[in-house]
Amino acid sequence: MPYVNIKITREGATASQKARLIEGVTRLLSDVLDKNPATTFVVIDEVAMEDWGIGGLPVAEYRKTLARGRA
């Protein structure tokens, strides 16, 4: 029974967007792994972006750097 855990940042993902993520992952498991969609579990965890890092910077700082054009 496949289990997928998706992590997204708490930035206002709507219920509709989350449903589309679940649908996409389920379709992927069905098409790639030939798994019955009814046997797949997809969990979406919303996490604070302060807990994430990219290139040695917290995500919030990294995005500020991108906004200033210095990626």
Task: Give a written overview of the molecule.
- By secondary structure, this protein is α+β, with helices and mostly antiparallel strands.
- The chain contains 2 helices and 4 strands; from the N terminus they run βαβββα.
- Strand 1, helix 1 (15-33) and strand 2 form a beta-alpha-beta unit.
- The longest helix has 19 residues, at 15-33.
- The N and C termini lie far apart (40 Å).
Question: TL;DR of this structure?
Answer:
With 71 residues, the protein is of the alpha+beta class. The chain is built from two helices and four strands. Strands 1-2 form a two-stranded parallel sheet. Strands 3-4 form a two-stranded antiparallel sheet.
Radius of gyration, in Å, reads: 16 Å
Please state the structural category: alpha+beta
Low-confidence parts: none
Name the quaternary structure: single chain
Mean pLDDT: 84
Strand order of the largest sheet: 1-2
Q: What letter string, H or E per element, gives the SSE order?
A: EHEEEH
Count the E strands: 4
Shape: elongated
Strand content: 25-35%
N- to C-terminal separation? Answer: 40 Å
Main sheet, how many strands, which sense, barrel?
2 strands, parallel
Summarize the amount of helix as a percent range: 25-40%
Total count of helical runs of at least 4 residues? 2
Protein name: Tautomerase
Keywords: Isomerase
Family: Belongs to the 4-oxalocrotonate tautomerase family.
Domain 4-oxalocrotonate tautomerase-like: 2-60
